[in-house]
C-alpha cells in the first residue's frame, strides 16, 4: 500500500488492493488530523497504535458478516467465511460496494430459485458467498472465484455451493442449476442501471498504459485492450516472433503489467501470432 501526496500538498491518496488495510489507514490518518496531540503516541509505538484501529474495524466486519446472513435468513457458516463476507464492505468493483452487491444478488437468486421450484435459501447462500475471494485477492494470486470456491470447500460447505462460487466466472464447469443462478444474479446486480460506473480519467489512463506496455516489445505489430481493460491482446509479426517467443512474451508482458499498474482482479494477456497466406486470382 502507498500513501500518495499531490503536488500542492493539500490532498493525500491511499493506493493499494487491500480494502481493509486502506480503511485502517484512513481512520488512523483521520485521528491524527482531528487530534494532532496523538502524533507523539503514534510515533512511540506505531504498530500498537494502528492495531487499535484494526481491532475495532475487525469487530465491525464481523457484525457486517453476521448481518448479511441474518437479513437473508440463512444459517451462518464457518466464522472465517462470515468475516470474509463482512470484509466485502471495504471492496468495490467499478464503484459498486461489494457487500451490498452480494446481498442484492442473493435476493435476486432467491427469487429466481423460488420461481423455478428450487431451494431458495440454498441459492441465497451460494450467491452471498460468491465473491468472498475478492477479500483476499491482494494476498492470494488467481481468480477470486477459484479462491472463494477453495475456501468454501476447505471450510466444509457443500460441493454444490463451492461449485456455484467457482463457476460464476466460468473458471469451473456449471454442475448444478444453482451455479447458473449465481452467475445470473451476479450479472444482474452488476449490470443494472446505476450499479457500476467507470471513472473516466482513470479508465482512459489504464487502457493507454496497457496498450503502451504491449506495444513496447520487439516484434509486436499492435496491441488492444478489450473487455473494459480486463484483457490485453497483443498481435505479433509472424516472421519476427516464433512460437516459443510468443509464449515468453505473454509471461513477460503480464509481469510488467503487474509491476507497473494497480488494478482490481486480473488482467489476461493474450499474445496472438497468426500465419497469413495471400494470393491474387486474375
Essential attributes:
282 residues; mainly alpha; Hypothetical protein af1432; 3-stranded mixed beta sheet; two-stranded antiparallel sheet; 11 helices
What does this structure look like?
The longest helix is centred in the first third of the chain and has 26 residues, at 46-71. The strands form three sheets. This protein has a three-stranded mixed sheet, with helices on one face. A two-stranded antiparallel sheet has the order 1-2. The protein has a two-stranded antiparallel ribbon with strand order 3-4. It has helices at 19-34, 39-44, 46-71, 79-87, 98-115, 120-128, 144-154, 159-167, 177-191, 200-215, 243-260; strands at residues 2-5, 12-15, 92-93, 96-97, 220-226, 231-236, 268-273. Helix 3 crosses helix 4 (79-87) and helix 6 crosses helix 8 (159-167). The chain has two domains: 61-191, Hypothetical protein af1432, CATH 1.10.3210; 200-273, GMP Synthetase, Chain A, domain 3 (2-Layer Sandwich), CATH 3.30.300. With 282 residues, the protein is mainly alpha-helical.
**Helix and strand element order:** EEHHHHEEHHHHHHEEHE
- Numbering strands along the chain, what is their spatial order in the largest sheet? 5-6-7
CATH topology value of the largest domain: Hypothetical protein af1432
SS strand fraction: 5-15%
Task: Give me the number of helical elements.
Answer: 11
Oligomeric state of the chains?
A: single chain
Major beta-sheet overview: 3 strands, mixed
Structural class: mainly alpha
Using the coordinates above, name the CATH class of the largest domain. Answer: Mainly Alpha
Number of domains: 2
Which geometry do the CA atoms define? flat
Q: Examine the secondary-structure arrangement and name the CATH architecture of the largest domain.
A: Orthogonal Bundle
Q: What's the CATH H-level homologous superfamily of the largest domain?
A: Hypothetical protein af1432
Amino acid at each position: 500500500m502507498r500513501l500518495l501526496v499531490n503536488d500542492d500538498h493539500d490532498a493525500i491518496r491511499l493506493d493499494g488492493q487491500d480494502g481493509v488495510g486502506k480503511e485502517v489507514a484512513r481512520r488512523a490518518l483521520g485521528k491524527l488530523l482531528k487530534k494532532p496531540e496523538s502524533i507523539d503516541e503514534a510515533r512511540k509505538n506505531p504498530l500498537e497504535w494502528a492495531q487499535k484501529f484494526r481491532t475495532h474495524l475487525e469487530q465491525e466486519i464481523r457484525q457486517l458478516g453476521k448481518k448479511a446472513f441474518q437479513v437473508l435468513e440463512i444459517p451462518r457458516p464457518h466464522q472465517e467465511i462470515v468475516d470474509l463476507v463482512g470484509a466485502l464492505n471495504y471492496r468495490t468493483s467499478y464503484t459498486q460496494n461489494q457487500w451490498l452487491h452480494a446481498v442484492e444478488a442473493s435476493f435476486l437468486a432467491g427469487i429466481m430459485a423460488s420461481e423455478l421450484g428450487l431451494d431458495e435459501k440454498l441459492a441465497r447462500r451460494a450467491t452471498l458467498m460468491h465473491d468472498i475471494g475478492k477479500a483476499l485477492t491482494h494476498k492470494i494470486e488467481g481468480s477470486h472465484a477459484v479462491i472463494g470456491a477453495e475456501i468454501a470447500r476447505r471450510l466444509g460447505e457443500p460441493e454444490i455451493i463451492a461449485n456455484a462460487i467457482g463457476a460464476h466466472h466460468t473458471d469451473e464447469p456449471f454442475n448444478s442449476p444453482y451455479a447458473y443462478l449465481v452467475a445470473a444474479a451476479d450479472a444482474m446486480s452488476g449490470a443494472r442501471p446505476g450499479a457500476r460506473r467507470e471513472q473516466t480519467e482513470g479508465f482512459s489512463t489504464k487502457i493507454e498504459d496497457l496498450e503502451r506496455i504491449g506495444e513496447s516489445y520487439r516484434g509486436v505489430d499492435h496491441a488492444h485492450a478489450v473487455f473494459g481493460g480486463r484483457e490485453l491482446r497483443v498481435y505479433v509479426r509472424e516472421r519476427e516472433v516464433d512460437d516459443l517467443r510468443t509464449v515468453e512474451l505473454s509471461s513477460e508482458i503480464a509481469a510488467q503489467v503487474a509491476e507497473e499498474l494497480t488494478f482490481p482482479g486480473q488482467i489476461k494477456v493474450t499474445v496472438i501470432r497468426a500465419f497469413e497466406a495471400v494470393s491474387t486470382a486474375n
